[in-house]
């Protein structure tokens, strides 16, 4: 006995409320439909349908079995549909949202590669440092830095965000260079505040393998990555800037790293999307592509980024940084 066919026949009989109409819709003889239901009841050892000359009705066992059959058949159909969909080339409009600094420095310079690989996908890219409501604003996929408290979203770890504590030479000439974390009490910082809460983000350092928060006073706060770095270049104060953004200025001497023995705690970079039953081909294509992009990007992806960061520092604490990143990799979000 084909149990899957029996489930299909049974649910069709219930939906049609008729053996004859179910047989016609399935292209089977009525006698075959009747036999299949009888054999199914014999297998389950329960009566599923009450039959009369005028109508059919479900027994309590039949109602329970019908509900389970609907779920099983729907899962099978959805699984088959997802593979049929995946076999087609990704197409359609894809709306993504990314932090402005990552969009400008990482994604935009490589967009032609994505278009050449997926010519039928139309990208709509939002670049903002404010949090977005992905469902309400119809965003298909977003890139986010740091912890992801919203459990309704699926997250795939694509990289690691490294920070660097630095300042312009003009600031250091005026205020001196801090040598210890305690020295920060006599300095001022440019702060970065959350667009969601309006609260300035605390500074932190990895000290002996533990993340330690340090409060530093400041005279200016911004909520844009480019503005944050620009304030540092103007000598407004110390910053904890993204290393991949600060690196050209560190190499040119426009910024100088301070307290290199205590690095800011690295943070995960994730591609996130709503937790649908299955992932659409266009979202899957973008997430796979951006993960590949970050993996090859110095200071943003995987173990190569850790090696680059540690080698750049060349200072005590590099092994601590590597250890902390490895710990974060062990607890990263489950890939979709």
From TrEMBL:
InterPro entries: LysR-type_TF_proteobact-type, LysR_HTH_N, LysR_subst-bd, WH-like_DNA-bd_sf, WH_DNA-bd_sf. Pfam families: HTH_1, LysR_substrate. GO terms for molecular function: DNA-binding transcription factor activity; sequence-specific DNA binding. PROSITE patterns: HTH_LYSR. GO terms for biological process: DNA-templated transcription. Residues 1-59 form the HTH lysR-type domain. Keywords: DNA-binding, Transcription, Transcription regulation. Signal peptide: none annotated. Belongs to the LysR transcriptional regulatory family. This is LysR family transcriptional regulator. The lineage of its organism: Bacteria, Pseudomonadati, Pseudomonadota, Betaproteobacteria, Rhodocyclales.
